[in-house]
Amino acid sequence: MEFNKIKIVSILKITTCILVLFGTGVNAQELTLKKAHDLMLTENGEIKASNFEVKSMEEENKATKGLRLPTVSLSGTYLNLDKDITADLNTERDMVGGLLSISDPTAVLGDWNFSLLDKNIGFASADISMPLYAGGKINAANKASDIKLQLSENNHRLKEDELTVNLITYFFRLKLAKEAEVLRKEVYETVLLHSNQADKFFENGMIPEVETLNAKVALSNANRELLAAKKDVALATTALKNLIGTDNLETISTTFTDPSILKPLNEFQNDMLKENKQLKTIEKNRELAKVGVKVENSDYFPKVGVFGKYLFWKDNLPLADTKWLAGLSVEWELFNGFQREHKIKASKYKVSQIEALDKQARLNLTTYTEKLYNEIEKQLEQFESLKTDETFAEKLKFMRTRAFEEGTGTSLEVVDATLKLTEIKLHKIKALYLYNVAYGELMVRIGETESFLNEK
After folding, report:
1. Are the beta carbons of 62 and 192 closer than 8 angstroms?
2. What is the pLDDT along the chain (456 residues), one digit of tens a residue?
3. How far apart are the C-alpha atoms of 357 and 337, rounded to whole Å?
4. How far is CA 261 from the centre of its chain?
5. Which residues form a coiled coil (predicted)?
6. What is the DSSP letter of 351?
7. How far is residue 446's CA from residue 440's CA, in Å, rounded to a whole number?
8. Residue 414: phi, psi to the nearest 5?
9. Global pTM?
């Protein structure tokens, strides 16, 4: 019974371990560039701050719509004067008494010193006002608010694009560092195997001691390069984690996809001029500047509005028997020292300034597109050339190794062939890295971010 119990417990432990390992294998998924991008959009602090700016502008836009609506308010006032407000007509009373041949006007006509207003007075009212016409300024303010909202949304997308370009760079830099680490590890293991083999050949008197020294120096160098590659991986991982905005980073794919032939340069340039968000920002600023001209022109026209007031409480106001009043107000500034003329000219210069910036920006973006495209073509050519070199280097390494094993070659030749092959492989993955970074940046700038992310 005791044996069976121990057997059952052992089986349960083994089963649990298998399930844990299986579950880990199922849940462990590689972090794709697309998934990293989605995480960054939700976790990155700069994107969150930019999104709050858009929300703030949305509320300001809603507030501007209220310029068309009436304004209702309550107001109250209570005053304490130094004395009552009176009207002393006793002199006039005496004059009247004289005309009427009254010997004692005070006794007959009384005191003509009247109190018009008590020194303590108060009143409260409900007020309403609404603009009817402001020379087009209200319409212009709403139009400007709409444009500012669109600008904030476009600036938010620009921020996303800027960080997406950084993400592409950091993501592929980590891939580059990981592949370089794998290569350095392969070199270290190869040189270690060769060093051990050289030691055995020396012990058997097949090679001189100097050959083992060459192998040991190469092994030390390979170990140093491997340690440096691991540090590069750690640094690249930290940079990517910080950009995404998370402390947990899943395993990423460590293989690059081969570059492919792209469409012609002029098609990319056309796409850049149509879809680039910097140009859209300039266009919105131009629209905003044109609205500014309309705002300044509106000062030439009168401002018309209606208003009303209802007194719902008063104290010691015997002369104000009315409960409400309503009216129409008109204000028309005829001359203000030529301020309007100069402000209109200034706003027109602003339009011209933005148009000049737009023209230069288009030239810059055309050159920028060509620069990225040339980088893509350059790295594509480098990659194709390095693939051929890699084939030759692998054959050379094989031949040098066989020659050393047969006693017709040296350890230095084997190490040299190994390092040459590694150098070519490193250049090849660096070409892939530079290709993907340039291609990714180009695709983001022409508004094809999703298309690029889905390719990876």
Report:
1. no
2. 443 444 443 444 444 443 333 333 333 457 889 999 999 999 999 999 999 999 999 999 999 999 999 999 999 988 888 887 888 887 887 787 778 878 787 877 888 887 777 788 888 999 999 999 988 899 999 999 999 999 999 999 999 999 999 999 999 999 999 999 999 998 999 889 888 888 888 888 877 888 788 888 989 999 999 999 999 999 999 999 999 988 877 678 656 777 887 789 999 999 999 999 999 999 999 999 999 999 999 989 999 999 999 988 888 776 667 788 899 999 998 888 899 999 999 999 999 999 999 999 999 999 999 999 999 999 999 999 999 999 999 999 999 989 988 878 877 788 888 889 999 999 999 999 999 999 999 999 999 999 998 876
3. 32
4. 31
5. none
6. H
7. 10
8. -65, -45
9. 0.80
The CA distance from 420 to 398, in Å, is 12
Specify which residues 315 forms β-bridges with.
122
d(CA 349, CA 247) in angstroms, rounded, equals 50
CA–CA separation, 183 and 413 (whole Å): 19
d(CA 208, CA 6): 59
Give 121's contacts (C-beta < 8 A, 6+ positions apart).
78, 79, 81, 315, 316, 317
d(CA 158, CA 24): 38
Query: Which of 295, 284, 301, 302 lies closest to 344, judged by CA?
Result: 295
Q: Give the span between the Cα atoms of 130 and 305, in whole angstroms.
A: 6
- List residues bridging with 309 in a β-sheet: 127, 325
Nearest partner of 372 among 441, 430, 432, 429, judged by Cα? 441
Q: Tokens representing 172? A: 């592929």
Q: Any idea what the Cα angle at residue 230 is, between residues 227 and 235, rounded to 5°?
A: 130
Enumerate the H helices of 30-136 as residue ranges: 33-43, 45-65, 90-99, 105-109
What is the rounded (10 degree) CA torsion for 335, 136, 147, 341?
-20
Q: Are 68 and 138 in contact (CB under 8 A)?
A: yes
Report DSSP state, residue 122: E
With vertex at residue 281, the alpha carbon angle to CA 278 and CA 285, rounded to the nearest 5 degrees, is 145
Distance of alpha carbon 197 from alpha carbon 212, whole angstroms: 9
CA–CA dist 208, 197 (Å, integer): 13
